[in-house]
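Title: Prediction job returns without error message
Component: structure pipeline
Severity: low
Priority: P3
Assignee: unassigned

Description:
Job completed but the reporter wants confirmation the result is attached to the right record. Sequence as submitted:
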Amino acid sequence: MEQFPEQASTNWLMSTFIFTVGAVAVLLVVVGLVMVDMGLVRRRNVLDTTVQKIGAAMVGGLGTLLIGYPIWMWQFNSAFGAPQPLWQAVKDWWIGGTFTTTASRYIDPTVLPEADVLQIFLVFFVTFTMATMALVHTGVVERIKPVPLYAMSFVMGAIISPLVGYLCWGSLSPLTLRGTHDFDGIFPLYITAGTFALVLAWRVGPRLGVFRPHPSGIKPASHNVAFVGIGVLLILFALPFITIGSGFIFADVGFFGISFTESGIGLVIINLFSGILGGAVMGLIVAYRRREASWALMGPIAGVVMGGTLFDISTSWVCLLVGALGPLVSLGTAALLRKARIDDPKVVPLALGPGVVGALLCGFLEWGTRTGGYLGLEGEYAPGVAEITPWWQLAGVVTTMLVSGVPALLMCLVFEKLGGLRRTEQAEIIGLDVDQWGVTNFGDDLEPGLGPVLPPEPVAEPMASATRTHSTPSGLPD
């Protein structure tokens, strides 16, 4: 078989390494979300919450690995003139496809340049889906059944998240070529997860004791809020590597945002930290004003989501101010949810609210900035073929919410007919760790005792005295 050593050039190998780090860094976001939920759920639900979140992330990632990635690659096949572009993408990039099962040195660079990079980008998408489902699960912790959650996770990974990416995230996606702009995955990650979680939280219903007292006396009780701070720091540690992975690196040319906007690695990292610090300081102010520590811990995340569409094209002071708006938008979103009696104090306020407002704000702040296209292409696919506008940002938001929200509602209705989305009331009262796994995960010093949760093990009858052995002072049997 003919080999192509140019696929192993130093420049391409360096890009492969950078994207590998970005892909793996997304797993730290999943770890951070596990820590956040460990801190905020009831102590007797910690184990089940952790298992469900990791399980949902893995099943969603499997969906993307099996068949989801070709949907995103569809846009590139269309632009480069491949016949039957979607079907060709499926043949090339499903788990048994030509490009997923062939080492890069055996792939002709005239057919697929930078094969290693695009293969690693498949892993990037897998971990992206994992983070998306970890976010969705956070919106319905302590009450959703595992089977519906895992089934929805697979559909998210196989269809929904890649389809939003195809439409809104990529330099050759249909909406990007008309003026919709994204950079840090605001559409396929935050708005998608926020919309899905909103529908799911509405259909599953609130946790017992959230909006009105429950006869059992049960009410939501955080296990250890300090874990939230640890989780947030893990997420912040991962974000710079993920941010660099949200673009194109061309040797001797430069760094471009995923929408093929002119940018630079240093610029996006400065802008990222500007958004983080803006959200952090405003979160501190909100926390002390309201005497609610969670705002101080979540403020940086709200700032990142709020400015995520701007990091590749804006300036640091703009990202600082936009990031500072994040906790305020989150606060308003949370208030709306409480009025609607929808129990999700985390995902919709932090992901959907700031994601939507930040995306729309980008349309006004960067009105007229060139976006879309790809290096070396001409005509409708030429670099900078489109201009960012508020109405195309709105089109991206509406499209994303429909693509994620409608399937979420349909799947909820199906599972409601098949046996329900929610665990039994008794299971929620005694704790999901005991109900599902038969174990406790706490010292029970902060919550009312459950009493015996497992039958005692049988104790062997004592042996007759005549058969017992006795020891002499020397330690040997008589």
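Comment from assignee: result matches the submitted record. Confidence is low (pLDDT under 50) at residues 449-457, 460-478.
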